[in-house]
Amino acid sequence: MTLKTRPTPFRQTVTALVAALAVLLVDPLSAEEGELPRGHFLLAESGKVIGENYTVTVEDGDTLVDIARRHNVGYEAIRMANPDVSLWAPYAGTEVTIPNRHILPDAPREGIVINLSELRLYYYSAEGVVETYPISVGREGYATPVGLTKTTVKVKDPHWSPPRSMREEAAARGEPPPTVVPPGPDNPLGRHAILLGLPSYLIHGTNKPEGVGMRVSRGCIRMYPEDIESLYERVPSGTQVNIVDQPFKAAWSQDGVLYAQSFPRLEENRGSVEPILEAIQVVSQAFGDDQPPVDYARLRQAVEQPDGQLISLLRSAEPAPEPVTLYDELVLGQR
Description:
By secondary structure, the protein is of the alpha+beta class.
């Protein structure tokens, strides 16, 4: 059975040339050196999987959080990819996995797409190119809203005014309200901020980069200082921003493999449909007209034990005594 039709070499070459030209316009030095800039990936002509995982070795004085920042990874992602490695005191010589492979969110490839459960931002900056960066989102009680908006005003060295919720909390404790913080090292917005069409919500930097990749904000999108600075210089005002919450993703790679990627769910966005049933729907949409042999046990495991790692859902075709639906096999497998 043919799972996917591969593009012709000629079309692949043309696509690669166009994408390379786009990258050259973004960062001429990196393009000359034959390397893509930080966070940049070329889009394949088919498939929705980008990047590859790789490993690095811990050096004296490194923390896992330091390594994550150097390699464009957030706190939770590096922790889940290396569950047996100490975050703050890994042994020198330890091999660390860098989770650098992603399934693109199921959303139009336009402007900025933010996937809340994934704690990751995607920016379709040029034809054939996508950029992706780790982010922090709203913590429990201050959930970042899902919806479609756009960038408005960009501010360098912003002042930070404490939100009403912080002033109310201080008053409840009998404490004086927090004061406006001028630009500088104590400013929680960092040096760059991009305002959104959603009132009081921003994409901004931080003075605590070790928290990037966690749910720690009051609803805003936080980024590493170097990442927001890069976007600040290049994202035009009026750029579409699509905020989605997709804890489970499934898609074909360019070479015809069906992958899934699952993240811990945000409880405030949990609907009435069970997670396993949502996963069935996502995988069914990825099938298209094909009905490939799916490893249902792995699908169940991905949903029940989300760790952000890509897993193949395909298995070798085996004769079955009776044909069953995807739903039936998942339910029967739990009995």
